[in-house]
């Protein structure tokens, strides 16, 4: 029987890094035993210890977390964390998952309600754009925005004024066809043309889109000053969003203008 434990794990990287670890500002990691993040590995290698795996991750700016298999000594570097992709965080005997215990702008972050904000989309099948900001936690299609099969479908919400966006979350459809969200891109900015705004996080992967009714998180790093938050698929497809939520930090802390305490 798998045992799931979670806590803080301290890895001493100073000697093994030789002063070269620049990506993670602290050697303190969240860890979980008998768990791994699947579908987000960009590099794998055999190493003898978790310390070496953690060092390699800390030296790679693409690395957000890592898995270590105690049996095979396989080190897997991930470009996402379990918070960004909770539905691909799975049980795996003798595997250990690690990500950084971040102390950044989290102290400033707060959820900003966009329920009822004006929303538009490229076309409408059954439900309009407002269904994605109606406050419902249902992932049934009757509660989701839904476009036709467009050449490049998009959805956009108007926040009314600038906010400093730190995270965006999308609740994917739960009764069918969640795979349609693959390759979707989240953007935030002041342009009404969605593709003119900078991206928040990475495009949705096949692994993220596969589970039904999953919430996918997009981490805007750095945070984005924006009036508009949008989702688009850069190619032919159907865009369906069951709920979109955002987190913000104060505007005077946006993109390092001030430090969060």
From TrEMBL:
GO terms for molecular function: fucose binding; metal ion binding. Residues 21-102 form the Apple domain. SUPFAM superfamilies: Galactose-binding domain-like (SSF49785), Hairpin loop containing domain-like (SSF57414). Residues 1-19 form the signal peptide. The keyword Disulfide bond applies. The keyword Calcium applies. GO terms for biological process: regulation of cellular defense response; regulation of complement activation, lectin pathway. Pfam families: F5_F8_type_C_2 (PF22633), PAN_1 (PF00024). Keywords: Calcium, Disulfide bond, Lectin, Metal-binding, Signal. PANTHER family: F5_8 TYPE C DOMAIN-CONTAINING PROTEIN (PTHR45713:SF6), FTP DOMAIN-CONTAINING PROTEIN (PTHR45713). Belongs to the fucolectin family. Homotrimer. Acts as a defensive agent. Recognizes blood group fucosylated oligosaccharides including A, B, H and Lewis B-type antigens. Does not recognize Lewis A antigen and has low affinity for monovalent haptens. This is Apple domain-containing protein.
């Amino acid at each position: 029987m798998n045992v799931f434990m979670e806590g803080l794990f301290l890895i001493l990287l100073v000697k093994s890094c030789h002063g070269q670890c620049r990506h993670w500002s602290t050697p303190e990691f969240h860890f979980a035993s008998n768990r791994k993040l699947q579908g987000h590995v960009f590099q794998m290698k055999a190493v003898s210890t978790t310390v070496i795996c953690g060092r390699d991750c800390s030296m790679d700016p693409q690395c957000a977390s890592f898995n270590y298999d105690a049996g095979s000594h396989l080190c897997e570097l991930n470009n996402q964390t379990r918070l960004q992709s909770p539905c691909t965080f799975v049980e795996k005997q003798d595997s250990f998952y690690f990500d950084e215990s971040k102390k950044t702008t989290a102290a400033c972050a707060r959820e900003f309600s966009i329920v009822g904000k004006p929303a538009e989309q490229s076309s409408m099948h059954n439900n309009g754009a407002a269904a994605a900001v109606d406050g419902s936690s249902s992932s049934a299609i009757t509660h989701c925005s839904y476009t036709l099969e467009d050449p490049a479908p998009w959805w956009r919400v108007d926040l009314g004024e600038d906010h400093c966006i730190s995270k965006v979350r999308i609740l994917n459809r739960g009764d069918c066809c969640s795979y349609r969200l693959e390759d979707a891109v989240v953007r935030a900015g002041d342009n009404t043309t969605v593709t003119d705004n900078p991206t928040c996080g990475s495009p949705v992967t096949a692994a993220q889109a596969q589970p039904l009714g999953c919430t996918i998180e997009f981490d805007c790093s750095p945070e984005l000053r924006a009036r508009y938050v949008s989702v688009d698929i850069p190619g032919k497809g159907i865009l369906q969003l069951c709920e979109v939520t955002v987190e913000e930090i104060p505007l005077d802390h946006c993109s390092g203008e001030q430090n969060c305490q």
